[in-house]
Structure formats: C-alpha cells, structure tokens
Amino acid sequence: MAVVVASDLDRTLIYSAAALALTMPDARAPRLLCVEVHESRPLSFMTETSAALLTELGERAVFVPTTTRTRKQYQRISLPGPEPVYAICANGGHLLVDGVSDPDWHASVTERLAARCAPLAEVREHLQATADPAWVRKHRVAEDLFAYLVVERELLPDAWVKDLAAWAEERGWAVSLQGRKIYAVPKPLTKSAAMREVADRTGARLTLSAGDSLLDADLLAATDRAWRPGHGELAKAQWTAPGVTALAERGVLAGEGILRAFLAQVRTEADEAQLPAS
C-alpha cells in the first residue's frame, strides 16, 4: 500500500528568480539548484536542501508532480530523485505514465468538459474581445483544454480580473491569477480527479498534497493532509479546509518546509505500518 504525494510545482516546490523571496542577508542565502532551463537560460530553482528532501521522498513514496503546465513545459523540468512514474499535467487534462499521456484518461476528461461547461472557443473569443493590448503580452491555449494570458501585472486592472471571473463562473469556468499569467480553466478540469486516479491505481492508504494557487484548492481539499505556503492566491485569500496546514514560510524556503512536512508524514506512516496489530 502506497503513500501518494501530489504536489504543485511552480511557486510550491520550484521557483523562478523573481519568486525566490530571498529576504535574508546575501551571505546567509541558501545554495540553489537549477531545475529548469528554457531557451538556454536558467529558469526555475529549488534549494539544495529541498533537492535532498525530494530525493528521499521519491524513494519512500509515490511522488506525483502535479501542474497546470502543458506536457512540453513540464518536460523542461529536471527534478532530483527517482523519475516519477506518474505526473499530472494541464491541470489534470493529461495523466502521464512513465512520461506518456494515458489516452483513456484524456478521453474521459474531454468528454466531461464537453458535457459540463462552455467550449474553449467561446472563452478565447471573450478574452480576445475584452483584454486590452496595452497590458496583454500573449494569448495562449494549453493542450486545447484551457486558455491563459501573459500580462504586464502592474498595468492589469483588478476590476477586469473580477469581471472575467464572474463571466467565467456563469459558464462553468474558473479564473486564476498567478504572477504574470491569468488562467481561464474549465471547472471540471481538476488536479484532484487525476490524483484520485493515481491513488486508485497504486492502492494508496494515504494521500498528501501541496499548492499555492486557487487551481490547487480542489487538490488540497481532496487529500488526507495538505500544506500551502505563506504566499500565493490561497494565502492571500486565507483559504483553508480540513486537513490543510498553512505554512508561514514564503518563497523558496516554503518549498523546503513543504518537503519536510511531506517526509515527516511519510516516515510516521511507515513507522505505524510496522507496528504489530493489537
């Protein structure tokens, strides 16, 4: 019986240079490991301590990287530790098994979306019509499942985001603002559904998770225990649920805190499993 650990990646376990939040004196800053290179430039990091913790976690549990990234974007990441058997990409739209998308899972997701929410084309048309080119840098579609914008955050009107969220809600979609990206994602497209599929396949006796954004809320609420960092949309909203622990750490050190919490729970579960039945 396995322990499944499904964790968001960006701003949860790995961090861009802008998101590191290294507030300590330079001489006391942690040593960093680059875990993603894009267009020949280092893009994402974790501390060397986090790398060691993740390696041990991968050896003790079923670690499942769980991300809104597309498969191509996910495959740029080189995480330390054993290669994960399972990974969740496109917010649950693709369940990778040994690096390959499970076709049956993807087909079931697309059928669910078609039945329960407005089509992607309608959302794209609305974004094109209402987003101001003065602050939009890119319009993107991810895996033909959802849309997102890359924006100039300092120019982005808060009222526009609220209006978009209300418009999307009526059509079965959700909106999430993460850094310079605004995501519009179908509500039935969830990380939690894919996590439950992995838990069923592995016969998990315990599920753990972590995440920082509104797109992670369903995942955190669906696992036995979960953690969120002291930054991000969930922290800003003071969101919580049964079994969810809010950490005080922010930035890359929050990644360390999350991995320590995962490992402590995995070790405790292993110790309890070895106790004789009463």
Written account of the structure:
- The chain is of the alpha/beta class.
- The chain has a five-stranded parallel β-sheet with strand order 4-1-12-13-14, sandwiched between helices. A four-stranded antiparallel β-sheet has the order 8-9-11-10.
- The mean pLDDT is 96.
- The percent range for strand residues is 25-35%
Q: Total number of helical segments?
A: 9
- Which shape, going by the Cα principal axes? globular
Q: Report the C-alpha radius of gyration, rounded.
A: 19 Å
List the helices and strands and how they pair.
Blueprint: E1 3-7, E2 32-38, E3 41-47, H1 48-60, E4 62-65, H2 71-74, E5 86-89, E6 94-97, E7 100-101, H3 103-116, H4 120-130, E8 136-142, E9 146-151, H5 158-169, E10 173-178, E11 181-186, H6 191-202, E12 206-210, H7 217-222, E13 225-228, H8 233-236, E14 244-246, H9 252-273
Parallel strand pairs: 1-4, 1-12, 12-13, 13-14
Antiparallel strand pairs: 2-3, 5-6, 6-7, 8-9, 9-11, 10-11
TL;DR?
The chain has 9 helices and 14 strands. It is an alpha/beta fold.
Key descriptive features of the protein:
single chain, 9 helices, globular, 5-stranded parallel β-sheet
